[in-house]
Design brief:
Blueprint: E1 2-11, E2 14-23, E3 34-40, E4 45-48, H1 50-58, E5 62-63, H2 65-73, H3 77-81
Parallel strand pairs: 1-5
Antiparallel strand pairs: 1-2, 2-3, 3-4
């Protein structure tokens, strides 16, 4: 199963995350299928590749709870239903 989840990168205590599509059995920092965006929790900065995310969601990819809340805040789900 394909999951949309966060991949950690950056320094200790200054972590940032990439939103990636991965096989659900691979480890957190393993090789992603595709990188779909960026999230920095310290500054609440997000950059999303919305068309690619919508494509993955329509193919059946399941987002984790954290990624789901990021997508809700940026109103990506409204484009999936359309």
């Amino acid at each position: 199963m394909i999951k949309l989840r966060l991949k950690k990168f950056g320094k200790k205590r200054e972590a940032s995350y990439r939103i990636v599509a991965m096989v659900s059995t691979s480890r957190r920092d393993g090789r992603p299928i595709e990188e779909l965006g960026f999230y920095n929790p310290r500054t609440d900065e997000t950059k999303l590749d919305v068309p690619a995310i919508v494509k993955r969601l329509k193919e059946g990819a399941q987002p984790t709870e954290t990624v789901r809340s990021i997508l809700r805040k940026s109103k990506v789900y409204e484009q999936v239903d359309a």
